[in-house]
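Researcher: Here's a chain I'd like modeled. Treat it as a single chain, no partners, no ligands.
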Amino acid sequence: MPATSDVERAPGSHTRSKRAIAVETLNVTGMVANRRLARAISDLGFGEFFRQLEYKSRWYGSSVWAADRWFPSSRLCGGCGTINRDLTLADRVWTCGCSLEHDRDANAARNLLAAMNLEQNAA
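Model: Modeled as a single isolated chain. C-alpha cells:
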C-alpha cells in the first residue's frame, strides 16, 4: 500500500537516507493550550510522525534519538555553551555574548546532533 501523506512518506525517506536521526520531544499539550495555535498544532500529528519514524528506523536499520523535552536546543550557543534565556519564539536569529550569530533552527539542529553524539559516545 503506497504512503498517502507526508506523515507516512517523510519518516521513510529520512530513515532510508540517514544512519541516525535526532529529534526534539515537544510539549504538544502546552502548545495546544495556546488557543490561536491549537488547531494547527493538533492537525500536524507529531505523535504519529514520531511513531512512524521509530517504526521505519527499525525497518531500515537506522536509529532515532530523542532529546529531553527541556533540552535548550535553540537557546544554547554552539560555540561557548551559554544559554540565552531571553530568546523568544519571534527571534529567528540571535547573537551570543561570544559574538557568534545563530540562526535559531540551524543552531538547534547542530545542538541536537552534538547532544546525540555525546550521549551515544558515552554509552
